[in-house]
Amino acid sequence: MICFVSYCCGHGLQIRAIGFRWLVAHEYVEAGLMEKHMPIRSFVNGDNAFSYDVGAHYLSVNKIGWSFEFSEYNSLGRLQVNIPPLPTQNLDNLDDILNQLINFYKLE
Fold first, then answer.
1. Higher pLDDT, 101 or 7
2. DSSP codes, 52-106
3. Which residues pair with 63 in a beta bridge?
4. Residue 107 neighbours by CB distance under 10 Å
5. Would you say 76 and 59 are in contact if contact means Cβ atoms under 8 Å apart?
6. Structure confidence by residue, pLDDT tens digits, 20-78
7. What is the CB-side half-sphere exposure of residue 77 using CA atoms within 13 A?
8. Which of 60, 79, 105, 107 could form a disulfide linkage to 36, CB 3.0–4.6 angstroms apart?
9. 17-56 exposure pattern, b = at least 16 Cβ within 10 A, e = fewer
């Protein structure tokens, strides 16, 4: 996690907590997709250029640059269908996000 030295201690701890929340969300969804036998990355295109050939890493919850704010789903955005909601503050919808991706990609 990133803790900037120029910030006061309280703000630095808040950045670490936000970063950890993002990491938990990303890894939870990524691991859930891999448990259903989706590869971590695409076999065909490593840069995720095709929406039909993606890996669990690209489909998982992502962040905007260095901010650790949840970003829209880049891979699914090209499809414009079945786009899951972003995680809530307390991450209570991660199972819903994961199940929506599992159903859409027919990983069951």
1. 101
2. TS--HHHHS-EE-TTS--EE--HHHHTTTSSPPPPPPTT-TTHHHHHHHHHHHTT
3. 70
4. 16
5. yes
6. 888 999 999 999 999 999 988 877 765 555 556 678 888 888 877 666 677 776 656 55
7. 12
8. 107
9. ebbebbeebbebbbebbbeeebeeebeeeeebeeeeebbb
Question: What does the domain layout of the chain look like in residue ranges?
Answer: 9-104
* Residue 45, helix vs strand vs coil: coil
Tell which residue, 54, 52, 58, 53, has the closest CA to residue 71.
58
pLDDT of residue 5: 47
CA distance 74 to 60: 10
Reduce the DSSP state of residue 41 to 3 states and report it.
coil
Q: How far apart are CA 59 and CA 48, in angstroms?
A: 10
20 three-class SS: helix
80 phi/psi in degrees, rounded to 5: 60, 25
Instruction: Determine the Cα–Cα distance for residues 49 and 1; give it in Å rounded to an integer.
Output: 28
